[in-house]
């Protein structure tokens, strides 16, 4: 038997090309997924920041001072019992705007109440509060004596006079709008409620206490 002098054929393993291509494809997909995730996170952060910018901060109305002038109730008994009252309030308000855009407000109004009944009213024209600024508003209100008597009755009014103090409540409303980024308009209303106690003897402000709120 003759021996074959030829060499056995070489055995070759699987070709590495498809494996490398598969690994490269997986890397590309992972990079794309990571990029999409980063973009989604950045978009969410940008949306949160935009919402924070577009949400207007609360304008604040503050009562800086209130003065009362005139004559508080006196009872005249002849020929018939009547009550004489001549009282004017002078209010100084400050409207602060913390927003990065101007606050354009309509007519600011203040209603004066005594024992829950409206007894006076004041109004100032519309205006603009600059961005992150403030403006001073001044108004006069004359108390309507007949409404004071109707609210308390002569007996209740005399009781307040004898006690030496009369308590009023001033409610101020400043409606307006804030335009953010030049095109997003938001309606805002600044409101303050102040309780003012007037001394009967000297027509002076004894105490005042205010609460502030904003309606968006």
Automatic annotation (TrEMBL):
Q: What is its main location?
A: membrane
The protein's matches in SUPFAM superfamilies, at most eight in alphabetical order, are given as: LEA14-like
Query: Which cell locations does it reside in?
Result: Membrane
InterPro entries per the UniProt record, alphabetical: LEA_2, NDR1-like
Which is a Gene Ontology cellular component entry for this protein? membrane
Keyword Transmembrane helix appears in the UniProt entry: yes
UniProt-recorded name of the protein: Late embryogenesis abundant protein LEA-2 subgroup domain-containing protein
Q: Where is the Late embryogenesis abundant protein LEA-2 subgroup domain?
A: 93-185
Question: Which domain of life does the UniProt lineage start with?
Answer: Eukaryota
* Keyword DNA-binding tagged: no
Residues annotated as region Disordered?
Answer: 1-21
GO BP terms:
defense response to other organism
Stretches that traverse the bilayer: 28-54
Question: Sorted alphabetically, which keywords does the UniProt record give?
Answer: Membrane, Transmembrane, Transmembrane helix
Report how it sits in the membrane.
Single-pass membrane protein
């Amino acid at each position: 038997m003759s021996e074959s002098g030829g060499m056995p054929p070489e055995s070759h393993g699987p070709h590495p090309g498809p494996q490398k291509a598969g690994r490269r494809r997986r890397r590309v997909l992972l990079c794309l997924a990571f990029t999409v995730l980063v973009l989604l996170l950045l978009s969410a952060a940008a949306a949160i920041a935009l919402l924070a910018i577009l949400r207007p901060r609360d304008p604040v109305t503050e009562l800086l001072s209130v003065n009362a002038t005139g004559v508080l109730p006196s009872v005249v008994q002849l020929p018939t019992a009547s009550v004489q009252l001549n009282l004017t309030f002078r209010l100084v308000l400050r409207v602060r705007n913390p927003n990065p855009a101007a606050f354009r407000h309509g007519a600011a109004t203040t209603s004066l109440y005594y024992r829950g009944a409206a007894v006076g009213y004041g109004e100032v024209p519309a205006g603009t509060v600059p961005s992150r600024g403030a403006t001073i508003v001044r108004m006069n209100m004359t108390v309507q004596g007949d409404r004071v008597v109707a609210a308390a009755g002569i007996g209740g009014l005399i009781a307040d006079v004898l006690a030496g103090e009369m308590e009023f409540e001033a409610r101020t409303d400043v409606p307006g709008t804030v335009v953010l980024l030049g095109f997003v308009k938001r309606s805002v209303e600044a409101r303050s409620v102040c309780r003012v106690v007037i001394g009967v003897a000297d027509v002076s402000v004894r105490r005042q206490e205010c609460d502030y709120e904003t309606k968006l």
